[in-house]
Amino acid sequence: MQLNNYYWFQAQPMAAMDPAPGLTAPGLKVRRLGLQDYVPIFKSMRYRAEHPLPERDDELWLLSHKPVFTQGQAGKAIHVLNPGNIPVIQVDRGGQVTYHGPGQLVCYLLLNMQRRHIGVRSLVDLIESAIIATLGDYGVVGATRAKAPGVYVNNAKIAALGLRVKNGWSYHGLSMNINMDLEPFARINPCGFAGLEVTQLAALIPPRDGLMQAVSKQLSNHLLVSLGYQAQPIS
User: pLDDT, tens digit, for every residue of 124-178?
Assistant: First the structure.
């Protein structure tokens, strides 16, 4: 796919992150890709990790997917209960099975972790903190669980997380339920937990227009700031 056909911007480092003379701050592009089939996106981000270029900018991809179940590399078939006409795709991230569909915000983090001197645990904490901060913008209290990556509201899962690191580059990322059809989650054991309740932001706040677009900007801003870049204006 031609990524440059979609809207993107170059993130600007915070003043406090300006590098010493002779050094260059890691470049970071943020891309907004709209509604996408899963497989082309998966292949594109995996290709980048399999063919690393030291001078390549890091990237955040924000998008939604057409309906699909994705099964992590250690996923067990028993957690896919009744997929029906929704495809099940085996992928190379961590974790078990989850669902992606319209109305869900997905953010993939393609980061040179060696260049940033960040480990997987720190990246997971950063992502979960950004999700919790985004929920907090709407007065919703999110929380994490030990040994169950993701973010929960009143014991219901609102955001899932799965990563892969190859050649020092991260890919995959997070999905956050905003305003979607939650029925397909009943066809699986979400993230490998039988009977796990799933929720979404639209069920927790008063109705408002443009919710997906607003949350996308707020989440990306929280991620940007956590990575040392300036937030973007939210209109």
Answer: 999 999 999 999 999 999 999 988 889 999 999 999 999 999 999 999 999 999 9
* Rounded CA separation 18/164 (Å): 29
Phi, psi values for residue 156, rounded to 5°: -105, 140
* 105 found inside a domain: yes
What CATH number did the domain enclosing 141 receive? 3.30.930.10
Give the predicted TM-score (pTM) of the model: 0.94
What single-letter DSSP state applies at residue 43? H
120-136 vs 211-227: helix axis angle to the nearest 10? 140
DSSP reduced 3-state for 23: coil
* 3 assigned to some structural domain: no
**What are φ and ψ of residue 73, in 5° steps?**
-65, -25
Kindly list the catalytic residues.
191
How many domains does the structure of the chain reveal? Answer: 1
